[in-house]
Amino acid sequence: MRPLLAAVCACLFAAEGCSRSATPDAPPPRPSILLVTLDTTRADAIGPDAEGVETPAFNALAARGRRFTQAYATAPETLPSHGSMMTGLYPAGHGVHENARHLSERHEVVAERLKQHGYQTAAVVSSFVLARRFGLARGFDRYDDELPGGAAERSAAETTARALAMLAASSGGPIFLWVHYFDPHAPYAPPEPFRARYRESPYLGEVAAMDYELGRLVDAFEKRVHGSAAIVVAGDHGEGLGDHGEMLHGNLLYQATMRVPLVMAGPSIEPGVSGTPVSVRRVYHTLLDLAGVEAAHSLRGSGTEVVLGEAMKPFLEYGWQPQVMAVEGTYKAILAGRIEAYDLAADPGETRELGSGADLPRSLRRALEDYPVPVPGAASGPDTLTDEARRQLASLGYVSGTATPVVRGDAPRPVDMVPLFETIDRASGLFVEERYADVIPLLRRILAADPHNLDASLRLATAHSALGQDDRAIEAFRRAAAIAPGSPDVRTYLALHYARGPDWPRAVPLLEAIVAEFPARLPAVEALAAIRERQGRPAEAIALRRQAHALKVPTAAELVHLGRLAMSVGRTALAIESFERARSVQGTAFAHDLELGVLYFDARRLEDARAALDRVPASHPEHPMALFKRAQVSVLLGEPDRAARIARARAGADATTRELIANERLFQGHQ
Ligand SMILES: [Zn+2]
Questions:
Q1: Among candidates 28, 16, 29, 36, which has minimal Cα distance to 226?
Q2: pLDDT value at residue 23
Q3: What is the C-alpha to C-alpha distance for residues 457 and 460, in angstroms, rounded to an integer?
Q4: Residue range 617-627, pLDDT digits in tens
Q5: How far apart are CA 290 and CA 288, in angstroms?
Q6: Measured in angstroms, how far is the CA atom of residue 80 from the centroid of ligand 1?
Q7: Is the separation of the CB atoms in 207 and 46 below 8 Å?
Q8: Is the pLDDT of residue 630 over 60?
Q9: Enclosing H/E stretch for 196
Q10: What does the pLDDT read at residue 147?
Q11: Distance 45 CA to ligand 1 centre (A)
């Protein structure tokens, strides 16, 4: 009977499936969608036109899909560029101009929309730069940003393994999977056999190794998903490799870093090659189109536009000219103080400027001039990076300052500052590693070449301050104040300088004003909290510590500190909460069960007090106190061995507990 019944059921479902697909106006089945983003991948380093490198997986997609040879990143940095692919907006629209900022919840991201339309959503990213905290995880059922052992990145092989595991765990129905590979990012260290094969050009070796993983991923995705599959592969930005003097990326807008690979393949995608300039921000619209949500601006459609891009880091970090790029047809123009223009068809290397007489299209010129320059400090969100996060970013070569620049007409053009890039990158790295003595000569060299560099002058002042070189620190602060009069950064760093040394009372009015005006400035909030403790004003210190903990996840040591502070003023509930949180973070390494036991006792949580006190080891320096409190708990709980516990407390007593035991009325009658 059973096989027959099964056969009948199968028929029913088959018939239903058949009749549904036969209905003429039924919606087409939605494909599962794979988005792969390739970090730091130059357009000329991957694909059928690439020289000196084999990328068969990308080439296979290009052969059966649609490839764009003039695709452009919206910014030469990871987070702003990915922000554009996820929102469909240029950085001026979504507000993230640099790494280490946060994408505002105001902007709907593509995963949210696909989820609303019934997609399972998952992401696997390979760099701390795209960690959940930076705002791209919204809408994903699962967002895997776990990096091995606190590292800042993981390899494409590891990322592929994670993605395949996610696929294996997915149920039926369409899937949207985003996988981000980071390998071609510096330092270039490809795995074997690519290391040996590309000994002369390890950057290309990284691209080839990543392409191998791309092939594994695409195969697995197409085999695993139910129904059809669509695939989109896009670069987030390229890499300078010395073009126009730039080794890495982030500071300039030339083709090496702005032109990126872009290919898509799937049953609804017409194969071919397009040379029309397009922006990677349209990945957003294309994903919605492939899912059948809406078709506007999809890369499946035709239509030309002026493609825009920006590189604001040198402006936001050093006060140099803001940079905007526009491409239309074969023309490309860069606005940075003045306009540079190139004919990309005749001069793809951008070596011959067309000059001021160039007959640029009006639409290009207007788009360039209308692109908004960010208001310093407005859209970037609060600076709440922890030291650990800064170090992780620094290990990837990204260091975000907190200085807000001043827009100056005579500011240098970034391309004229190329000889300084390497020094600036090295100085940033040393500063974050707190190698202050080593960083000072580099900062002086930067200031000699770029006397208005606020970031460098503040770092110089901070370095001298940390080394206890008071006079030099104050001199550097004066210089910073002259560059940016009234800058909250200058006031903050000067206050932190005073707070560090014997002049700490001078920090008080400065910090009070800064915290009142900028309650999210974490370093100022923490410094004022420490000063309030020093002043013997614990209630205010507690309020400030809690303000700091709302801005970032506190460490166990910070929770213990708050717990002790709360205990000292009799705020038992807050103290218990703080110690309990520290314990949940630290597990067996938690060493404050005595405090917790005492607090539970005060709160008359006797069972909890007993458990906590029983965890205090005999090696604890205040073990006599643990024995005393445990005996009290024993009496109140009416334990049968209470007399023995009192005896043990007596036998193990020190000067403090001996007196407490003698005066404890609970123990009377248990001689
Ligand atoms: Zn990137």
A1: 29
A2: 44
A3: 5
A4: 999 999 999 99
A5: 6
A6: 9
A7: yes
A8: yes
A9: helix 194-197
A10: 86
A11: 15
